[in-house]
Amino acid sequence: NAGVTQTPKFQVLKTGQSMTLQCAQDMNHEYMSWYRQDPGMGLRLIHYSVGAGITDQGEVPNGYNVSRSTTEDFPLRLLSAAPSQTSVYFCASSYSSGPSSGNTIYFGEGSWLTVV
Amino acid sequence: GDSVTQMEGPVTLSEEAFLTINCTYTATGYPSLFWYVQYPGEGLQLLLKATKADDKGSNKGFEATYRKETTSFHLEKGSVQVSDSAVYFCALSDYYDMRFGAGTRLTVKP
After folding, report:
1. In angstroms, rounded to a whole number, what is the distance separating the alpha carbons of residues A18 and A88?
2. Mean pLDDT calculated for residue range A65-91
3. Fewest 10 Å CB contacts: which of A3, A10, A95, A112?
């Protein structure tokens, strides 16, 4: 039972480079999201999706793009990496409407990104 | 906007000690409340949740009660083990977003 799978687990980028963090879930969840985790700040929502073809911004969307062409996949793109994007990134998924109805969110294991 | 405040750590306890991690929230509606746990190098895992006032969530000996009158959701465990060492996050649901506290690192020593 794979759950939520993220790749890569570790990545070092140079300032200005672009890259894509991959996320896939095999639970047929409609809701998927990306969070970043920074020391002392908990997790903050970057983007989310409530179904294929539908995406929306979270609390900290600047510098990131997402798309949702299938129910299973929700990639996060860094357009031009900056040192401020050094963080741990978590993909998450949930049934139907996500957390608003008390649904449990399932997290991937995280992707450690360093921008130098 | 909605927010969560949890006690700052780190917290260090001896095995079998009593644990309390305080969590208070600010919300305009009636959110669901959660405790997540993160072990080193891993993602967050749901520990317990409560979806309405006076509900008690419990799991693996941990408990938390949704107190609307004090806007609190404190995490408690009667006797901690070394294996409980982790970072604990209090969170609330806010439409399509989860609002997390900053996390409290717990270390349990034998």
Report:
1. 16
2. 96
3. A10
Mind spelling out the 3-state secondary structure of A29-91?
CCEEEEEEECCCCCEEEEEEEEECCEEEECCCCCCEEECCCCCCECCEEECCCCHHHCEEEEE
d(CA A44, CA A12): 21
Q: Does A98 touch chain B (CB under 8 A)?
A: yes
Percent of chain B residues topping a pLDDT of 90: 77
- Among residues B41, B56, B69, B49, the alpha carbon closest in space to that of A104 is found at B49
Residues on chain A touching B49 (C-beta within 8 angstroms): 102, 104
B56-60: long-range contacts, CB 8 A cutoff, minimum separation 24 = B57/B33
d(CA B90, CA B7) in angstroms, rounded, equals 10
For residue A57, name the pLDDT band (cuts at 50, 70, 90). Answer: very high
Whether the bond into A75 is cis, omega within 30 of 0? no
The 10s digit of each residue's pLDDT in B51-95 is 999 999 999 999 999 999 999 999 999 999 999 999 999 999 877
CB B52 within 8 A of CB B66: yes
β-bridge partners, A47? A34, A57
Taking Cα atoms as reference points, which of B67, B85, B65, B64 lies closest to residue B76? B64
